[in-house]
Amino acid sequence: MSQRKFVNRKNELKFLESRYKSKSSEFIVIYGRRRVGKTELMLKFLENKKGMYFLASTEGDRQNIQDFSKIVGRIIDD
């Protein structure tokens, strides 16, 4: 678990929680400037939830698809 301070993200967490509780399947992309807390937001939100976090690399589409598929496979097998 991260030891960094996590502040001022109540609205974002509330939005993500509402989408998580929704009955429909959704795909949410989080993007923004560097070092504004996107990763921390997602890791905080995913605590104690069945979900996944995937950070695409610059290694190319093929590698990203393979990595993404592995993560999804692990989640489905659980």
Structural descriptors:
about 80 residues; mainly alpha; 3 helices; about 50% helix; globular
Helix segment tally: 3
Q: Assess the beta-strand content as a share of residues.
A: under 5%
Oligomer: single chain
First and last CA, distance: 21 Å
- Shape field: globular
Count every beta strand, where a strand is a DSSP E run of 2 or more residues: 0
Spans where pLDDT lies below 50 across 5 or more residues:
none
Give the rounded overall mean pLDDT.
Answer: 89
Helix content: 40-55%
Number of domains: 1
Radius of gyration: 14 Å
Biggest sheet, open or closed, and with what strands and sense?
Answer: none
Summarize the structure.
It is built from three helices and no strands.
Provide an overview of this structure:
By secondary structure, the protein is mainly alpha-helical. It has one domain. It is about 50% helix and about 0% strand. The chain contains three helices and no strands. The model has no long low-confidence stretch (mean pLDDT about 90).
Give the SSE layout:
Layout: H1 10-21, H2 38-46, H3 61-77
